[in-house]
Amino acid sequence: MARVAARLSTDGEQSTHPVDEVLPVPKLALYGFQHVLAFYAGAVIVPIIVGNALKLSPEQLVYLINADLFTCGIASIIQALGIGRIGARLPLIQGVTFTAVSPMIAIGLGAGGGTAALLVIYGAVITAGIATFAFAWLPAKAFRTVMRLFPPVVTGTVITVLGIVLIPVGLNDAAGGLGSPDFGDPKNFAYAGGTMLFILILMKIGKPFLSSISILLGLVVGTTVAFLLGDAKFGDVGNSEWIGITTPFHFGAPKFEWFPIVLMLIVMLITMVETTGDTYAVGDIVGKEVDSETVARALRADGAATALGGVLNSFPYVAFAENVGLVRMTKVKSRFVVVAAGVFMIILGLLPKAAAIVAAVPHGVLGGAATVMFAMVALAGIQTLAKVDLKEEKNALIVGVSLAFALLPATVPVFFTKHMDPDLSSLLNSGVTLGATSAIVLNLIFNGLAEDGAHDVPKVELPAQVAAAADTADTADDADSAAAVPKPSGEGEAARTPAS
Fold first, then answer.
1. Where is this region: Disordered (predicted)?
2. Which of 21, 196, 276, 317 is the most buried (most CB within 10 A)?
3. What is the pTM of this model?
4. Looking only at Cα atoms, what is the longest distance across the chain?
């Protein structure tokens, strides 16, 4: 399958499919399944991490994974196919944003963990999704004002903070998972190290298709080795149903609390920047002009998918950069390929046994793969900051102080758990929240609002394995084109903002 997909992906005849072409069903299925492979590990790792942090049961974790995949499929179809003025009609895969992981864990732990925590999270997710959807219908001037809060020094700092805050989550899993009886056992680190080594070898080989699914293959091989050694238990797979339907509010009615809602609104502000960048990136790749209405439609799809995620027991959604890289790498531009991928994800979301297999991945194996992914997120932030003049003392202070604030919850957790109101703690006990807020506020103090046209929408920095694969597939492109660049500012700032 891999050889066939890789061969088709680089075939000259297949590289000319325009964005609106409907391919024959066999090709749609093959290319769509390839998108699912590139996306799958990133899709399921968020519910696994959040579910484990909230101490959910194996059955609840399986349901969470199914709900995520089911909603991912619907969200991707909305984004790629479009419904009225909702959806960019570009080959954009929608997935749960990593930006929300740390804040959701903070909200959940502040609510006491378990399914009660999920209800508070879902209330915040639904509210933030509706707010994002409504925002994308505002006049261009309002959108432009908000985007001026996010010059590259802010977005680069936020993405770096996100990776740095998530790396300890991956390392805790590599140690066996917080609270597990074998936490810190060298055996867990052996599984983590072996999984990381396998992923790095695949990336070193540099074959485009293998590189794009290296995380997924690392999880598969690591879990297989653990199973052969008796450390991966699949008993819950046999106990799971073959078919399972995701129903609205499965865990109960959502709870709407003020501080978690504010926290999730901050998350959605960050994801709006990410989706905007991804929309320009994929538009540049497929050769379709991205105007203000296209960006607005993409953000409306984000908001609708996020609100739907809260209803269907999932989380906030954003366009996945991994799959933007895959579009560039394969040169298959048809948005209907993503529609096919969405259908595959809906089918997977109806198969609890498939989710039970994923839920059985040992903590050590998961931690090894997650650490690599989170480190790549931090690297993407550093690459964005490389475009900022850090010799300018004001910018250096913004980055440095924000990183310090981001490390406060992990360094002095007792300040938040014992000396702060629980509601306030659920908002502030997050490195992402403190780091992002600090970057925005300090940038306003030192630099003020960015001028219109003074900076472009941030480039989309692709994960290292995808960028490497893209370079292998198309060495004629320069390094910067691996993260597709938005249209030059000379084309007008109005083309960068949604119109009412």
1. 471-500
2. 317
3. 0.66
4. 64
